[in-house]
Amino acid sequence: MEYETVIGLEVHVELLTESKLFCSCPNRFAADPNVNTCPGCLGFPGILPQLNGAAVKKALTAALALNCEIALYSYFDRKNYFYPDLSKGYQISQFHVPIGSNGYLDSEDDQGQLKRVRIGRVHMEEDAGKLVHSPAGDTSLVDYNRAGVPLIEVVTEPDLRSSGEARRYLEKLKSILQYARVSDCKMEEGSLRCDANISLRPAGSNTLGSKTELKNMNSFKAVEKSLEHEIKRQRVILKSGKEVISQTLRWEENSQETIVMRGKLQAHDYRCFVDPELAPIQLTAEEVEEARQNLPEMAEERAARFVKAYNLPEYDAAILTVSRSLADYFEACMADYDNPKTAGNWIMGELTAKLNSAGIEADCCSFTPLFMTELLKMIDEGLISGKLAKEILDQSFTGGKSPRQIVKEENLTQISDHGELEKIIRQMIEDHPDSVENYRGGKTKALGFLVGQVMKETKGKANPQLVNELLLKALK
Amino acid sequence: MDSTTISAGRLADQVNKGELKARELIEKVLQNAEEQDSRLNIFCSTAGEVALDQASAVDKKIEAGICLPLAGVPFTIKDDFIYKALPTTLGSLMFKSFYPPYNAAAVEKLIAAGAVVVGKTNIDNMGVGATTLDSPQGPTLNPREPGRIAGSAGAAALAAGICSLALESDSGGALRQGASHCGVFGFLPSAGLVSRHGLALHSGSFCRVGLSAAYPEDLPVALNVISGYDPRDPATAACREVKARREKLDDLSNIAVGYLETLPGLASGLHRNLYQDTLDKIAALGVKKVEVRLTHLSEALRAYQVIAAAEASSTLLRYDGIRYGEAIEADNLEMLYCKTRKATFNGEALNRSIFGTYFLSKGGYDRYYRQALKVWTLVRLELEAAFDQCDLLLLPAVRTEPLPVSGEPDFIDLYEDNLYTVPASMTGNPALCLPAGELGGAPVGVQLVGRLFEDAFLLSAAVKIAPALASAQQELDGGGN
Hints:
Chain A is 39% helix and 20% strand. Chain A is α+β, with helices and mostly antiparallel strands and 476 residues long. In chain A, a hairpin with a 6-residue loop joins β8 and β9.
């Protein structure tokens, strides 16, 4: 029997705000534990939650960017459970009425066709702290720096049909939320986290099969891999005539397999009810409309603008706008450099390769747009060759020194001095009379040999175009 | 008793004029507090040096020519308010040395106005209850009838002449019933009028900050000090948005008091008679009587219990011993939670944790919690309709005499005691319990409920009505000067 895969994703995204959701503690990473805490986010008695309006605005922007209907009246509930990282014994979350619902996101299916993924809900909630286990495993400590950080949870309908679709959905979601300036969406740093619900059903069936929930995937690649793993596992079970047990599984990155976290019988009853300490969130139609009008430019719009404003090919524009940080990088270069095509090529080629292998985004790379334009200008000025430029980029990317500084310190400047080159050329002509004879006799190949000799003599620093030019002149 | 039994207004006046030194006053107050405490079991902790330092600071300000509305006025703090100089025990042995590093908004404002902390008063475990029978140090005795409970230790402190004001909390009626039992004035301001920052509440919907006083004239002054918007309690935004229909009272003959013709649940005909007498006395002052009907009293009580239990079951989850308080060591996390929480809770706080968990569970939510929310709406609508006909509503405060201290009451019976205090708790209206007489040797009060945010109006009416109600009863503290 053929089976159809059914996947739904729940994505948690940290919102980019100055402070936490219900207190004024800073919402930023801290290396030391429990420095970004106060009695409020530590769950002390007598401290009431004060809603951060900026977080509501970000959540509203996210919901609009994901084409959601906006609830003008929504409120916060409490989700009750015991765990040491949960300081109040409950998580404040929007359970009954989310701020956004019935949205969608347009992505691609495995055949490259448009795939509209329905988004059931976008709701606000607070993050929990985290446990730090001692290496010996005998004690656990709690770090509440993250407790109370504002999150949105974006929940899809079970619309995804393959691990590839899931990955593309995540990439698109990340792009949208980054463009909307809602979150930096760094999965490796935990500012984007994804859980997946997955089931298989006989092709053509309309009823959902029994599902499992996958947790603990730390990268888009891990999401794709774990889903593939789980699809295979479920298919084997179904083919053998058995039933898939509904349970929560944990992806183990090291062994590339899933382990059971908890079964269905251990499922929590979170006893969600409206938080009596918080007023409902009331938005006006005007506020929502204003937020809609002020939605930042998204990838497609930006690509179209790049084509128009910078005369870039559509292909280049699409690649340069894949992430907001890359597009910002390109535009920052354009402030100081006037050949968009060249800059684009370098960013799409060399820079992207370096970013990918370092696993970072363009906004946190030490090879700044200023360095990039410096490098491109040195090529244009004929100071360095393209080949050398790649090496310099490499060095600057890891070492953090500016390209000009590297060129200066290592004396890498290309030789473009006519007098100096003519001297070497004369010497080469003297040293290789046969080649000169051959060239004059019509064997144009001999010219290449002579250029090569000049390059060798200058250790590759001679401007190759100029060598060509001067050699031709000298051989006349 | 000495000068500490006179009104806050008169004390502040003397201190402001330099006729009385706050420090000398407070020295006497502390001495009296100690004597009374050994007899009545009022305090969890007394302020001692802290109080004397505060009093000296007040004296310095007065010498510098600064006038303070509550200069030198001694007040007590119920132990569910946080005041960093004294432990916040929350009525649990697991918090006997708990010092949260901040002050409750109301405490801060009272101190800034010149009032001086005498000590923190006894509470039921987690502040849940109206008897102090669930306190680890045992119940506070009624100064007027020591064989019975005071209900509220703050009210007992007032009745014992220890202080002029008591900072109290009230969710279902603790403050008002305690005031009734002790023969003092217990005032629950409108919801949203006083910041709850620093109050260890167990129900966000119902817990409010209140004040009790020996003299009704002191309540408007003290309310003025502690009320107003505070960003740390978002609910106080309401006091800026909602405008009172009536601010000041000019003449009692211009107002109408609503009353109930049938009074279900009262313990005896005597309570009924007291209510009737009180109504007649108020009418004799020229106040118009209007019969109103509250048909949902019984359902309101049950809805209140469901919602209050649900909220307590969630709000009290934070007391797990991990971040503060004490934890009992165990082999694993689950046992740590079990042991620690078992040692932390008892009595009604424990009941509510268990019942509330059920009311919110998959099986209980629709059957109990959702239904209770609907009843809550009906109660609001009914009380609103009542206030279309009247300016004030006269209700009993208690349905029976204060319990004997040796009693081990059934908790279900205790729930019934909230029958007439719960409506104002649910609707957010201001309510004042004022002394109305005595039954079985103990004082009994009645409640006047006002319209939302008409606190000033309610209090000024009460100031005019109180002397008429006191005419038949003996003086509160034997003449008081």
